[in-house]
Amino acid sequence: MTVEVRPASEFEDVRALLGPKSPQANVCWCLSYRIPSKLNRELRGPARGEHVAELLRSGAPLGVLAYEDGAPVGWAAVAPRADTSFARNRKIPHVDDLPVWSLWCIRVRPGHRGEGLSHALISGAVEYARAQGAPAVEAYPLDNGDARVDLTMAYPGLRKNFERAGFAHAAETTSVLSGHPRVLMRLDLR
Fold first, then answer.
1. How far apart are CA 129 and CA 81, in angstroms?
2. Spatial CB neighbours of 175, under 8 Å, sequence gap ≥ 6
């Protein structure tokens, strides 16, 4: 198994990880934290994928994809916090005014879980942000301890995986997802 993580640039590869089986479905496409909530509510069905394609054409940083033997098998969303709703989120605090990047979604395709891809995605997202000049990367994972997490709600990642990647606890949040508190983790790149 050969895994390579690289910036998301091919729409079909992004669609393979984030798009719905039915084009009319209203799946997230990892837009919920990326765009204003009003626009997020307005974009329905195929318009969501079209918006992602437009973002890719614009060159906006969307995230990274993991490829296993050439096929896309994992996704991590990473972008400047200022370009996300985390810039205005009342439940997730700002530690300081540093122009950090946010890493908020990790997705591994079924059949490829348990292979360490989430670790590769976190590392790849950090390297991508570093290459773009990010002074630090923040994440807002679940602090689940040893409790089980519903895989559909584990998209922010787990605290222990970010700790393994060198992130440090930076702040508590008032955000809770699927019954688990979220914490603010940070990796300084300076």
1. 11
2. 89, 91, 92, 140, 181, 182
pLDDT per position as a tens digit, 41-87: 999 999 999 999 999 999 999 999 999 999 999 999 999 999 999 99
pLDDT tens column, 80-102: 999 999 999 999 999 999 999 99
What kind and span of H or E run contains 41?
A: helix 37-42
- Dihedral sign from CA coordinates of 78, 106, 123, 94: positive
3-state secondary structure 109-157: CCCCCCCCHHHHHHHHHHHHHHHCCCCEEEECCECCCCCCCCHHHCCCC
Residue ranges of E strands in the chain: 3-7, 63-68, 71-80, 101-108, 136-139, 168-177, 180-188
Residue with tokens 């989430």: 118
Radius of gyration of the chain (CA): 16
Span of 48-62, 108-122, 153-167 with lowest mean pLDDT: 108-122
